[in-house]
Amino acid sequence: MEIKKEDLVFNHYTWYDGTAGTRQDMSPTRNTFDRNNGAHILWIANWYITEYPGSEKADIAKLETLLSDKLPSGLMSEKSVCNWLANT
Question: What is d(CA 32, CA 13) in angstroms, rounded to the nearest whole number?
Answer without folding.
Answer: 16
